[in-house]
């Protein structure tokens, strides 16, 4: 059996591409084959028969599909990295993220003040944060707050990778801005001081 890139794509579209799966435990190498049927059919119909067909899609809820579309539509640097990393989440983590976004926006509407939430995943290797506010009086405030808290939270949690999402509560989108950060933790006295001031508690949620 010989696998290729199409088999890997088929495995991804089937929703089973996770290198942390227990099925891979104890193996030095894994060959994946026999999963490109949907991809092969799409390529044949589109390019050989000239038909208008939809490409195969991974199993994804409508709400999470909307989130991914909005992340990519931001046009922010790193938006594709954010989307690809979010797509690697489990179904439970996706649901928690959508619920967190909705709850955060509701708190903003009730209080009139900026609200945030964050989650630590993948055994501390990945952090995801979301903040929402009403930026009608200061359109640039959303971007400033996103960058500030993204840098501080990644530093405070010492995560190698951090995805930061932000939204204006007046927007129809789930997400208006995003930011992707990746790199090893390095101690910084100024970030230490700011993290203690602005991030006094660190709510962790494994998913």
How would you concisely characterize the structure shown here?
This protein is α+β, with helices and mostly antiparallel strands.
Key features of this structure:
7 helices; 2 domains; 43% helix; 14% strand; single chain; 207 residues; globular; alpha+beta
Notes on the structure:
Helix 6 (141-157) links the parallel strand 2 and strand 3 (161-168). A 4-stranded mixed β-sheet has the order 1-2-3-4, sandwiched between helices. The protein has 207 residues and is an alpha+beta fold. It has 7 helices and 4 strands; from the N terminus they run αααααββαββα. The two termini are 34 Å apart. The protein folds into 2 domains: 5-48, no CATH class; 62-198, no CATH class. It has helices at residues 5-13, 37-48, 62-73, 79-87, 91-111, 141-157, 189-198, and strands spanning 115-121, 126-133, 161-168, 177-182.
Instruction: Describe the sheet with the most strands.
Output: 4 strands, mixed
Low-confidence stretches: 202-207
Label the overall shape. Answer: globular
Q: Cα-atom Rg, whole angstroms? A: 20 Å
Order of helices and strands: HHHHHEEHEEH
Mean pLDDT: 86
Q: How many DSSP-defined strands?
A: 4
Distance between the termini: 34 Å
Compute the number of helices.
7
Strand order of the largest sheet: 1-2-3-4
Helix/strand class: alpha+beta
Count of domain modules:
2
* β-strand amount: 5-15%
Determine the fraction of residues in helical runs and give it as a percent range.
40-55%
């Amino acid at each position: 059996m010989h696998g290729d890139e199409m088999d890997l794509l088929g495995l991804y579209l089937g929703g089973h591409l996770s290198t942390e799966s227990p099925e891979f435990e104890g193996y030095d190498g894994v060959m994946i084959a026999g999963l490109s049927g949907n991809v092969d059919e799409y390529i044949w119909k589109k390019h050989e028969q000239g038909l208008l067909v939809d490409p195969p899609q991974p199993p994804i809820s409508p709400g999470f599909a909307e989130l991914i579309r909005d992340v990519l539509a931001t046009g922010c640097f790193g938006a594709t990295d954010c989307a690809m990393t979010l797509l690697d989440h489990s179904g439970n983590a996706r649901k928690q993220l959508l619920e967190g976004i909705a709850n955060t926006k509701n708190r903003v509407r009730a209080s009139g003040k900026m609200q945030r939430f964050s989650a630590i995943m993948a055994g501390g290797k990945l952090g995801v944060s979301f903040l929402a506010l009403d930026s009608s009086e200061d359109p640039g405030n959303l971007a400033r707050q996103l960058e500030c808290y993204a840098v501080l939270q990644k530093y405070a949690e010492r995560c190698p990778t951090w995805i930061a999402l932000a939204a204006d509560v007046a927007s129809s989108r789930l997400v208006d801005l995003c930011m992707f950060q990746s790199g090893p933790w390095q101690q910084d006295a100024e970030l230490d001081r700011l993290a203690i001031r602005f991030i006094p508690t660190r709510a962790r949620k494994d998913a």
